[in-house]
# Entry
Amino acid sequence: MATYNTSEFRKGLKVQLDGEPYLMIECFFVKPGKGQALYKCKLKNLIRNTVLDRTYKSGDTIEAADIEEIDAQFLYRQGDHFVFMDNNSFEQYELTKDQVDEAWKYLKEGMPCTMMLFNGKPISVTPPNHVVLKVEYCEPGARGNTATNVTKPCTVETGAEITVPAFVEMGDLIKVDTRTGEYIERVKAE
Amino acid sequence: MSLGRTANGFRPTARWEILRLRAELLRTIRQFFEERGFLEVETPVLSADTVVDRHLDPFWTVDVDSVADITPHTQRYFLQTSPEFGMKRLLAAGSPGAIYQITRVFRRGEIGPLHNPEFTMVEWYRVGDNLETGIGLLGELCQALFHRGVPRIQTYREAFAAFVGLDPHLASVVELRQTAERMQVAYPATLSLDDRDGWLDLLWSEKVQPHLGRQEPVIICDYPASQAALAIVREGSPEVAERFELFVDGIELANGYHELRDPQELRRRIATANAQRIKDGKAPLPVTNRLLAAMEAGLPPCVGVAMGFDRVVMLRAGAKCIRDVLAFPFDRA
# Structure
């Protein structure tokens, strides 16, 4: 099994602790002039999204995680299962609602995604940064009110609720930032 | 690593006003020492000798033609981790009693917000100084650089007791570990219970140092004897190292010793440091050097201090990262 030595520690490293994959989201080097060097790390669990504080001293090692990111597309949803296909091998993967996490809000059939595999098994999926979704339901807005600071909830085609400006109407297509869940703009149908 | 070989990788990471501040502070330091009759000296950056310290890793170089087949007999030259050896050799050889140097030093693996593997060190020695007068001179330089008053002087024991609530000289390793746990200090799983200094360093770095010098600068003195490095150990109960450090805004700026002069003791400390290096999985460093010969000939009683110049610039500029005060940090060097 490959390992990383403290001298290789840096943000973005994918490592394995107690059999689970972690992303090094911070690594801070501290050293008294005449003393022990310490590497203070923040590690994010790639399955559960929890964050651990771990401190290492120079010469320590962490096991590398076998993490692969592949291009996939979303095929369909069946109850609490989401089915994806590897764009290169055409292999199909089934993810649970927990694994898909917030991404379910943006998944439309055929949508390209990045899927993360740990030891060859899918653990998470990331939709494109921006997706266009159709508004299925919302309260009618005040006509002519173009202010963006007056907002209301709307339900989009995936079933998710998105906060939009009051002027958005049913049937509109809206662009959403999947990293924040925020409305960006209304777009015209192609 | 990209080594900065991107389109913009040739550019400095420091703003021009900070590079101008560097030049201004170098002038301030030279003027400070000239006014006090110090002689500016230069000693080799590249040397066959090197300081042997458990936690300092030098870069070593070989002739480019011998890279292909390095043997234990290949002549190695070390990039200095401090100008200590060269300057003490000058003192032992009868140089004027007050000398200073501003030079580049190199420490492998040290990269972080306060560390760059190559950095600028200001180092000075004055013959005849004792702990008190040596601390006094450091305090004067601190005042000339920061105008924040004369540093407060505190012992390692007082500072440790104030922020950790333990006596660093008497607490057992188990007590140190329990305190780390109680104070929720994340510690390396590999930090062993026979490494007392490792536990002291951990609590010091995490729970003491960040508080030091927040108002007026602070000079900490009387370090544990086990952390003497090249300082005299003063007898007493407990015995302590005549070593001192300056802290400003939680940042370690300078380290000084009432200098060890006994070559036999230096040999013992080199052997101890090398034994620890081997235990830590590091290469041992040469046990003989010209400093030992100089100490055999006689090093006059003196105090020596090393100050990290880049951190002085950081504090004066309000910079959070050493990259902001260097023209070209290591990944762009």
